[in-house]
Specification:
single chain, 557 residues, alpha/beta, ten-stranded mixed beta sheet, seven-stranded parallel beta sheet, 25% helix
C-alpha cells in the first residue's frame, strides 16, 4: 500500500513587503518555509506508515529550492521525495497546478493521497479537491482523524456545524486540518540523498494555460483611526451597539432584463446564501438563479428569480448537477459561499469543466461583462485582483462580506431529490453545542492569546447576558479553547457586527481581514503599541484579565 503526500514551500508571509510604486510583492530576502498544514499531512502519513508499514512518498511542485522541504519530509520518515520542476510550470494557477499534480498521482498510483487543507500564502483550498477530481479519487476536506480499514478509510471531518465521521472507499484523497496532529521536530543534521526530479515530460500542461490571471495587487490598508478611551466610555459604546443596527433599506429585485443567468449557490448556510444573492442582485440585471441544498423555507426573501432545491445531494452529486446546468443554460457568472462544502463543490465544477475559479473573495465588481474578483493573499495583507479567462467566470466569497440590500417578494422553486448513491457512508455526526450563538449578533467578542483560559467562561457569561457571540483568533482555536467554527480571520470566518470587541488580540493581518466589515472595532490590550490599535476605532490600554473582571462585575450588577 502506498501513501503520497503533496507539500508546498511558501514564503514567510510575515516578512512579505509591498512596493507601492511598482505594485509588486517584494520576495527578495524572504525566508522560504514548509507550509505548516502540509507538514501535518506528512506527519499523518508517517504515523500510518509506522503503524501499517506503508510505502510513503512526498512530492512538491516548485523551483529547485523546494527540494529542501522534500528532504525535511524524508527526515520526518517519508521514504521517497519527488520534485516537479520545470520552467513550463511557472505561473500555474490552481487549475493547472492540479492538472500537473494529478499527472503525478496517476504515475505513483497511491492508495491514499494526503495534503494540507490549504497553503498559508494563498488560502484557496482548491488544489486538493481539483487534483482529487482530476485523478478520479474519492475526496474529503478538513480531515482531523484517519483510521485504515480493509478496503476503505474511516475519517473524522471538522465541518462548519460540527464533527462527522465517514467511511470512504479507496483510493481516497484527503486534505487534513490543523487538528489532526502535532508534527514532529525535524533534525536538520540527518543526511538525505537528493530527491528525484520530474519535469514537463509527465504532462502537457503549462502555466501559460492558466484560466485565471492576476491583473493587479494592492495592500490592505486599515481605514480606522484609533481613539483611546476609558472604561466608562466603552460601556456607553457597548450599550449603543447592544440596541442593534437599524434595519437597512432594502430593495426588491425586478424582472430580468436579459436572457443570461447569474448563478448563485446556496450551500449549508442560509445567511451567506442571502448575502450572495443580494450581491448578485446589486451587480446584474440578468436572471438570478440559485441552486442549493437548503430548504427554501429557510431562504424566504432571497434575492432570486428561481431556486433549484437539491434535496439529499452530496457535494459530488451537487457539483455534477451544477456543471450540467451550466452546460445547458446561458450562465455568465457563478458565485458561491467559501464554506467547507461550497469550496469543494466549486472546485469539482471547475475541474470537470476546465473553468477558472477564484476562492475566498472579499469583493466582486463587474467590468465590461466580466466579474472582477478581489482575493486576500499572503496572510490577508495584500489583495490580488483576479480575472477569469474562461466563461462563466466563477468565485467563492467569504461570509459577512456583503450586506443584504436586495430581496425578492417570491421566487419560483423546483425541488429535485437525489437518486445517486453517496460516494461515502456517514457513520456519525455531532452538531455544535446549540448554546453557542452564531457569529451574526450585533456585538461580537474576539478572544486573543492575551486572554487567560480561566477568563473565557466569564466572557461567555457576559456575551450570554447581552445577546452577544464569541469568536477567537486562530492561535486560540489551535489551543483548543474555542471551537474551530468560531475562528475569525483569513483562515476562519469574516464578521460584520455593529461592534467587535477584540480582547488580548495582537492584530495580525490574518485576523483583522476578518473584521474589516465590522461597524466599529474596540480593542483591549495592555501594550499601547500593539498592532490591533491600528485597526481599531477605539482602544483601552488595559490588562485583559482586569478588563474582563471589571466588565463582568458591571454586567452582573
Amino acid at each position: 500500500m502506498k501513501i503520497l503526500v503533496l507539500v508546498k514551500q511558501i514564503p514567510d508571509i510575515s516578512a512579505i513587503k509591498f512596493d507601492q510604486k511598482t505594485k509588486r510583492i517584494i520576495r527578495s530576502g524572504v525566508k522560504l518555509l514548509f507550509n505548516s498544514y502540509d507538514k501535518k499531512a506528512v506527519e499523518a502519513a508517517v504515523q500510518l506508515s509506522e503503524k501499517y508499514g506503508y510505502e510513503t512518498y512526498a512530492a512538491s511542485m516548485g523551483p529547485p529550492d523546494a527540494a529542501e522541504i522534500l528532504k525535511d519530509s524524508m527526515r520526518m520518515g517519508i521514504n521517497h521525495g519527488i520534485l516537479l520542476s520545470d520552467r513550463n510550470f511557472a505561473g500555474s494557477d490552481t487549475f493547472v497546478t492540479s492538472h500537473i499534480l494529478s499527472a503525478l498521482v496517476n504515475i505513483i498510483n497511491p492508495d491514499i493521497v494526503l495534503t494540507g487543507k490549504s497553503s498559508l500564502d494563498g488560502e484557496t483550498s482548491q488544489v486538493p479537491p481539483e487534483t482529487a477530481w482530476m485523478s478520479g479519487y474519492n475526496f474529503l476536506s478538513g480531515v482531523s482523524g484517519i483510521e485504515i480499514m480493509e478496503k476503505s478509510v474511516e475519517v473524522t471531518r471538522d465541518e462548519d456545524d460540527g464533527i462527522s465521521k465517514y467511511e470512504v472507499p479507496l483510493p481516497a484523497f484527503f486534505s487534513v486540518s490543523e487538528k489532526i496532529n502535532r508534527a514532529r521536530q525535524i533534525d536538520p543534521s540527518v543526511k538525505i540523498e537528493d530527491v528525484e526530479v520530474y519535469d514537463s515530460d509527465i504532462t502537457p500542461w503549462k502555466g501559460s494555460q492558466s484560466p485565471t490571471e492576476v491583473v493587479d495587487t494592492f495592500p490592505l490598508n486599515s481605514s480606522r483611526n484609533n481613539k483611546f478611551i476609558d472604561f466608562n466610555k466603552f460601556i456607553e459604546i457597548l450599550h449603543e451597539a447592544g440596541q442593534g443596527p437599524s434595519d437597512p433599506h432594502r430593495e426588491y429585485i425586478s424582472e430580468p432584463e436579459t436572457g443570461d443567468i447569474f448563478l448563485g449557490l446556496a450551500v449549508d448556510d442560509p445567511k451567506i446564501s442571502m448575502e450572495i444573492s443580494s450581491k448578485i442582485a446589486e451587480s446584474t440585471n440578468d436572471k438570478i438563479t440559485v441552486i442549493g441544498n437548503i430548504d427554501p423555507v429557510q431562504l424566504q426573501g432571497m434575492a432570486c428569480h428561481q431556486y433549484v432545491y437539491l434535496e439529499d445531494y452530496s457535494s459530488v452529486s451537487m457539483a455534477k448537477y451544477v456543471a450540467k446546468y451550466i452546460q445547458d443554460n446561458p450562465v455568465r457568472h457563478v458565485l458561491a459561499p467559501s464554506n467547507l462544502n461550497g469550496r469543494d463543490i466549486m472546485s469539482f465544477v471547475a475541474a470537470s469543466m476546465g473553468l477558472g475559479l477564484t476562492a475566498d473573495c472579499v469583493d466582486i465588481k463587474m467590468e465590461n461583462g466580466k466579474m472582477i474578483q478581489y482575493k486576500p493573499s499572503f496572510g490577508g495583507g495584500i489583495i490580488a485582483v483576479i480575472k477569469s479567462k474562461t466563461d462563466p467566470d466563477m468565485a467563492t466569497v467569504r461570509k459577512g462580506m456583503f450586506q443584504v440590500r436586495f430581496m425578492s417578494r417570491s421566487f419560483e422553486t423546483t425541488k429535485i431529490r437525489s437518486r445517486a448513491a453517496p460516494e461515502y457512508r456517514i457513520i456519525e455526526r455531532k452538531k455544535l453545542d446549540s448554546g453557542l450563538r452564531p457569529l451574526d449578533t450585533p456585538v461580537i467578542f474576539g478572544i486573543g492569546t492575551g486572554v487567560m483560559a480561566d477568563d473565557i467562561p466569564k466572557i461567555y457569561d457576559i456575551a450570554d447576558k447581552i445577546g452577544a457571540s464569541v469568536g477567537a483568533t486562530r492561535r486560540v482555536v489551535d489551543m483548543g479553547r474555542i471551537p474551530r467554527q468560531f475562528q475569525i480571520g483569513l483562515t476562519g470566518v469574516s464578521v460584520s457586527p455593529e461592534l467587535y470587541i477584540a480582547i488580548g488580540v495582537s492584530g495580525s493581518d490574518n485576523h483583522v481581514v476578518g473584521t474589516r466589515y465590522a461597524g466599529r472595532v474596540m480593542a483591549v490590550n495592555k501594550n499601547p503599541d500593539a498592532p490591533i490599535f491600528r485597526h481599531s476605532d477605539f482602544g483601552i490600554v488595559m490588562d485583559s484579565h482586569e478588563f474582563i473582571g471589571e466588565l463582568y462585575s458591571n454586567i452582573n450588577h
